Amino acid sequence: MKRTFSLVWITAALLVATLLTACSDSNKYYIGPRNTGSPMDAVNTGLPKVNIQTPAGQAITSREEWMAGATLTIYDADGTVTYQGTTQVRGRGNSTWGYPKKPYALKLDKKSALLGMPKHKRWCLLANFMDRTMMRNDVAFEIARHMSALDYTPRGRFVELFLNGVHVGNYYLCEQIKVDENRVNIAEMDEKATTDLGVTGGFLMEIDSHFDELFRFMSPYAELPWQCKDPDEVNPQQFNYIQQYVSEMEFSLYDPERFARRDFTKYMDLESFADWWLVYELTMNYETREPNSCFMYKDADTADAPAKMKAGPVWDFDYGTFTPERVYQFGTKYDLYYPRLFEDEAFCQLVQQRWQLVKESDLLTHILTYIDQQEQLLEASDELNAPMWPVTSADNINKDNMLNYHDAVQRLKQTFTQKYLWLDGAINNL
Fold first, then answer.
1. Burial class for 34, CB neighbours closer than 10 Å (0-12, 13-18, 19+)
2. Dihedral sign, CA of 291, 159, 173, 102?
3. pLDDT tens digit string along 203-242?
4. pTM for this prediction
């Protein structure tokens, strides 16, 4: 009898051990019951955890209307609360809002520093749904930070996102592009200013084919869709000023006599245009062809000198970037104002000089090392995110979603290396 009992006990123990092992293999990054309502208890991939608790657990269904009264809580990987506050939340994005994994916008009730990033009210949660590596935006931003003529590049941190306690995968919590001393550091427009220097800036502008901002205009020569992004409302005098400025800038480019005199240098900060172009070529970002999400900005003039239009910040790299079919060709050389700028020999020489600075900074080695580090950071999160958000063949824009995570990251590294080396030779023949 005792022997029979012992055999039963041993058999049961082995069965439990087997079940625990199987459970551990398939859910090894979950350290508690799924969807318990506590982000701290639900999952541990080594990333910070962000929970958005909406009023009465409402779903976030609108890109247009802010939902007020939500609570934002951020946890370190060990469960320590590093931030808690109230916020408004809504959906964000254009085409990305149509995908199953939704991106979101946050408007905190007061300026706050999140995960080591400087204080502000406005933040984004990028879903990176189409990006098998999850890191295309982040890597592009790291490339841009090595371009000294780009004054500001958004900062971001990878997180596990929870909505009302339910884990919804890996997200990129990053700064929204706004005018601020810690972001696009230009003068904040006084809405009452109607004369003199008060109407000259600062303007954060976006060239975007969605053409959905309140204050927008088509430029007269290049026929590009310009929009006032920040401030999103300007008075008639200010709006008239920026329209005239863009018109004059384009006239100085496209009028043969003024182009020959290089009058456009009075209006355009060419070093920033060169560095911005290098980022988009290296990442193979063709959003310039729509165009979409192409930011530029102009500070207010001073009594001593007028301010020029600057290119940047860079934005939106999850779609069609770092792809092999775009390696051995120029892309953005033929978009926006670049076809005309590259007719100017001095601008070509400037781009070549800026490229030499990139090479001297050993950008290639740095980015390849950075990608390896990000892969280690994200591989545990991918094991949960990838099966949660499978990408269909119709959404496989980057053509790497059938690869495992490591192979997708290696493909990104290889493609970036090939583009860097190709550009190093091709740039001498602009």
1. exposed
2. positive
3. 999 999 999 999 999 999 999 999 999 999 999 999 999 9
4. 0.91
